[in-house]
Input
Amino acid sequence: MGTLDKGGDNIKLRASGEDYLEAILILRKKKGMVRSIDLAQHMEYSKASISHAVSVLKDGGFLTMGSNGYLYLTEQGREIAEKVYEKHQFFTRQLMEAGVEPKIAEEEACRMEHTISDASFLKLKEAAKESS
Output
């Protein structure tokens, strides 16, 4: 389940890695502190899958784990998580306003958030503001 693509010095997360970071951010907002077990329950993944992903994300410098077992996003991890979360909220809202059923809007927003470039997303946000 590789979560990172390593290309030279540039480490780029795949969608699955972004999903883990986003989930940690969301759980942190809801619960304050996040452990691997919280992440497993939230994402409905096995503890083994979560453990592997956490290890890969730690190695990539996206998160750390305290001696207390809590997960902490690094500055780089938090920036990525916040960008992905912003895109997710934006696309979910846009799809629901267009009449898409909430569950489908959530699922499709999750796919869209990973594929759109930052530049295109900024243009969409601007266009949405202008049309409001």
